[in-house]
Design brief:
The protein has 361 residues and is of the alpha/beta class. The protein folds into two domains: 267 residues, YjeF N-terminal domain (Rossmann fold, 3-Layer(aba) Sandwich), CATH 3.40.50.10260; 59 residues. Helices cover 36% and strands 15% of the residues. It has eleven helices and 13 strands. It has a seven-stranded parallel β-sheet with strand order 4-3-2-5-6-7-9, covered by helices on one side. The chain has a three-stranded mixed β-sheet with strand order 8-1-10. Strand 3, helix 5 and strand 4 form a beta-alpha-beta unit. The chain starts with 5 loop residues before the first strand and ends in a 17-residue tail after the last strand.
Length: 361
């Protein structure tokens, strides 16, 4: 089974982590591993953005070729140059600000900051908390020893090109209050791209509810397993583009926890399309592949009938019949010529008044 096909609650994630630590994985080692994956992914994203900008500049300088990109002279050289780190020189590397919380999410952010600092990025740290967990404090002290600027003021982030949010991780349940709530609102108003580690700070892990206020992320780098809250409607405007960062959670640990509680499956695009179109033998007949009757539409809501018909057609059904008000028949015939469109008597308001179907329908 693929980990990406499941979503977990905060309690389930705690149980899974507890099994990993009980098996002998040190907390500090896991933090280093996870943060290393995050740092590598951030560099990959920035590299891709640098490549996109170089190509955009190249094409704008061409005055518009009207050709496929692959045929434009010089584009191959631009892409070859963009393959490696030379996409950025030290003057072009973006300045990155890290929002550091008191827990291990903040520790993750600090390790990422350290690694990107060693790669030549300009890094600053914003940590508004006087007390932090022991491991997080170790990384904070080490960051200071490297002369990475650290401050408890939001102003330190003003000149950053990108922010990385590690204020709060999964499991937050209490509402965020001032002064942290005010700081989060200030950060959101900086209008800078923000990458959140695991979950945007201020979002409830299970429900997706905003706990007073929350970071509005451009991207969310979810760690290990999808958190249920990220998939809830109320969280979507805060999550941005979400992706899963795999750090090697043993499937046995996940299975052991999920089999004792509710197992939440994600329906991904790949899963949804895996059974479509319906399999059929090379020699067949439309009536052998299923006959579907749709009864839908009204004069006011003609679009609903069309969309329903298009969806049914895409399913791979052999024969499709659609019963609609008589006034919609010509419209449906134009949109779905392969379907049998049945016009029915309609009311004064344009709805079907009586269903009249052919004998073989």
């Amino acid at each position: 089974m693929k980990l990406e096909n499941f979503a977990v609650t905060a309690d389930q994630m705690r149980q899974i982590e507890a099994k990993i630590f009980a098996a002998g994985m040190p907390v500090a080692a896991l933090m280093e591993k996870v943060a290393g994956r995050i740092a590598a992914r951030i560099q990959m994203i920035l590299r891709a953005e640098g490549r996109r900008q170089k190509e955009s500049e190249f094409f704008s300088g061409c005055g518009g070729w009207g050709l496929a990109e692959a045929n434009v002279p010089g584009i191959a050289d631009v892409r070859k140059e963009a393959e490696g780190k030379e996409v950025f020189d030290l003057q072009q590397l973006p300045a990155i600000g890290f929002l550091v919380g008191p827990g291990h999410n903040g520790g993750d952010a600090l390790v990422v900051a350290r690694e990107l600092h060693f790669q030549g990025f300009s890094v600053v740290i914003y940590c508004p908390f006087a007390k932090v967990k022991e491991l997080t404090d170790c990384h904070l002290r080490y960051a200071r020893s490297l002369n990475i600027p650290c401050s408890d003021k939001v102003d330190v982030l003003t000149n950053c090109d990108l922010l990385v949010d590690g204020l709060f991780g999964f499991g937050l349940e209490r509402e965020i209050t001032n002064p942290i709530a005010l700081a989060i609102d200030q950060i959101n108003h900086l209008n800078k791209p923000i990458f959140s580690i695991d979950i945007p700070s201020g979002i409830h892990t299970d429900t997706g509810a905003v706990l007073g206020t929350a970071i509005r992320a451009t991207r969310t780098l979810c760690l290990g397993l999808w958190k249920l809250g990220l998939l809830q409607d109320k969280a979507l405007e805060y999550v941005g583009k979400a992706e899963l960062i795999d750090f090697g959670i043993p499937w046995a640990d996940v299975e052991n926890v999920l089999e004792r509680s509710s197992k939440i499956h994600r329906i991904t695009r790949k899963i949804a399309l895996s059974t479509l179109p319906l399999p059929r033998p090379p020699v067949t007949h439309k009536y052998k592949e299923g006959h579907l009757l749709l009864i839908c539409g009204s004069r006011r809501y003609a679009g609903g009938a069309i969309l329903t018909g298009l969806g049914a057609r895409a399913s791979g059904v052999g024969m499709l019949s659609i019963a609609v008000p008589e006034s919609l028949k010509s419209l449906l015939v134009a949109q779905l010529p392969e379907a049998l469109i049945i016009g029915c008597p309609e009311t004064e308001t344009g709805a079907i008044s009586q269903l009249e179907l052919p004998a073989n329908t």
